[in-house]
Amino acid sequence: MKLLSSRKARNNLVAYSFIAPNFIGYLIFTLIPVFFTLVLSLFDWNAGDQFSFVGIKNYVRMIHNSTFKISFWNTIYYAIGTVPVTMVISLGLAKLLNAPIKGRTAFRSAIFFPHVAAVVAIAAVWNMLFNPDMGPVNMFLKGLGISNPPRWAASTDWAMPVVILASIWRNAGYYMIIYLAGLQGIPYELYEAAKMDGASGWQSFRRITLPMLTPITFFVSIMLTISCFKVFDLIYTMTEGGPGRATNVLVMHIYQSAFTEYKFGYASAVATVLFVLVLVITLIQFRGEKKWANNM
Amino acid sequence: MKAKQRTTKMIIYILLTGISVIMLVPFAWMLVSSFKMNKDVFTYPIEWWPKQFTTDNYVRIWQEIPLLQYFFNTTKLTVIITMIQLLTSTFAAYAFAKLEFPGKNTLFLAYICTIAMPWQSYMIPQFMIIKKLGLVNTHLSLIILQSFTAFGVFLIRQFYMEIPNEICEAARIDGMSEYGIYAKIMLPLSKPVIATLTIFSFTTVWNDFMGPLIYINSDRLKTIQLGLRSFITEYSSEYSLIMAGSIVALIPILIVFACLQQYFVEGIATTGVKG
User: Fold this and answer.
1) Is A285 within 8 Å of A70 (Cβ atoms)?
2) Which residue of chain B has the CA closest to A229?
3) What CATH number labels A59-295?
4) What's the pTM?
5) Is the dihedral of CA A150, A172, A106, A184 positive or negative?
6) Which of A17, A22, A176 to mutate to test the interface with B (most CBs of B within 10 A)?
7) Which has the minimum average pLDDT: A88-102, A194-208, A280-294, B61-75?
8) Among residues of chain A, what percentage have pLDDT more than 90?
């Protein structure tokens, strides 16, 4: 008996030794910080040695801060502009690429490549293409007879649309691949049967493809929404949140409050909002997954 | 019927070609502009073949900024982080997939619960820790922050779950230790998933912008993204030079992408659909 339990203890020790190298790093640099974001949001800290407990004061400040409000609504604007269009485009692309045609891999690579390209380079070329005075896009629009084309990243009204356009261009290929995997999971017999019953292409898309893809569509919408809430790189490199505060988003507000204004407590309060938003979306996902798991 | 099928195929080809062109046009424009004189970048209609072809930008970009140093820094970070991630993730994933021990589910849940959390939501306490450790403005800060991810453990654990337990059982009966099974049986079987994690980690670290933006101040420590970005803000009207720099920054990713894209696609499909 004793022998058995000591053997068990040894086995456990072996198991922990496998996990420890990763878990210790993960604990210190991810789990503890997640927890301390909430704690820090109740303090004032300016990166020095002084911490002072301020209760919910940071949250009160946040609600009255106009930049926070603008950033919050800009994030929603960005998400609404990005999520539905990206979903439709990536599903359409997946459907096209699922057909048995030559050169599929080449098309897929071309469409996917923007996703892995460095954002700094992408922002540089987009800003040049959409340069209000000399860029080819506006030259083209002028050629069409539009004498006052939008001033894109230099205009408070058009900066967000051009950022959204860039993000759709950049992300469509990624979600296309997820949809493609989903499409390949639909049994071909379903389409065959529908065809025999005289269903048109559009009908079988509506009655077979879409319903079969529901779990994937749900997953994609969740992932896309989360990715919109955390957007930073693309906006920072394209507009730096400007002009004015026209493209300032939540993470930009967190970044500026913390690393340029050294209001770390306040920034943690904003980060907590981001945290809660993502948590709510994730919980919705869990519930949805359960639902579909039961139905299938 | 045949004719109809052929027209459908034609339409698909035309659509796909059109979309691929839209996707690649910015890169083509970038490439062409990098071989132009600065004054010719915005000539309209677009000159898809530079009238005055010059490779001058590619010579100058290395002189204007310490691009070689940036390259070296980025490569160093990418290689170290990817190595640590591969090593520790395969290690932990083995225990989660093939061993029984108390607290297994709780520990795994601890990994899962942050997998969708953007790191921006907990970057401030991370910064506190790094500051306390005196590691601000060092490469070590980025290494320790990015090497231990839930994603890596999750991805590899999913793969290990599919490997039959009997293989490990048989080796145990033969007297092989768990470390031996990990090294001699599991690792050789994990080539595809290791390729997937490698390419994910490589592109993430190579393209990372916000991490270096927060932690790196000294020019000699900058990564290629951060260095290129400072160059762009400083020389904002050197259009052709900026495009040359961008092309140089894209080339390593392009190479890795071309070689390993199959694993990329498979990785997205598995983590996406099963995750």
Assistant:
1) no
2) B118
3) 1.10.3720.10
4) 0.89
5) negative
6) A22
7) A280-294
8) 37
